[in-house]
Amino acid sequence: MKFRLHFIKVDSFTMLRNLHSLLLDHNQLQYIPNLGPLSNLEELDISYNTRIKELSSISLPTSLQKLLIAGVGIKRITSTCKNLYFSACFNGLTMLHHLDMSDGIGTGIRKRQIEDGAFNDLHNLTEIDISYTLWDNNVSSENLWKHLTNLEQLNARRCYLKKPLQIFNSTDKTPFSTQLKVLDFSGNKIDSQNLTKLLFLNLTKLYLNNTKLVEVQSGFKNMPKLSELHLSGVGLQNGKNLDLQQLQSLRYLDISYNKLSSFPVFPPYLEILNIYGNKLATIEKKAFSNMQHITSLNLTGNATTSQGITTIEQSAFYSNGTRNLLKHLYFDNNKLTQINTSSFIGLDSLKELSLAGNQIQQVIGTFPLPLLQVLDLSNNDLTYIYPNMFREIQSLQQLDLSKNLNLIDLQFNITMMHLTMLNLNDCNFTWIPDLSNLPALETLKLSNNFIGEVTMSDFDRCCQNLSTLIMDRNLIEIGQRPVFGNLTNLKFLDVSENSANISIHAFENLDQLVTLKLKNNDIKDFFTSPFPNLEILDMGQNKLTTLGTKPLHILMPKIQQIDFNSNTITHVQDELLENMESLTFINFKYNAFKCPCNETSEEFQSYLYIKAWLKNFAQKEKADPRLEIKPSILNLFTYYCIRHNENDLVNLFDDFTCDKAYYDYESMLNMTDTSYYPLYGY
Question: In terms of Cα–Cα distance, which of 50, 114, 107, 44 is closest to 78?
Answer without folding.
Answer: 114
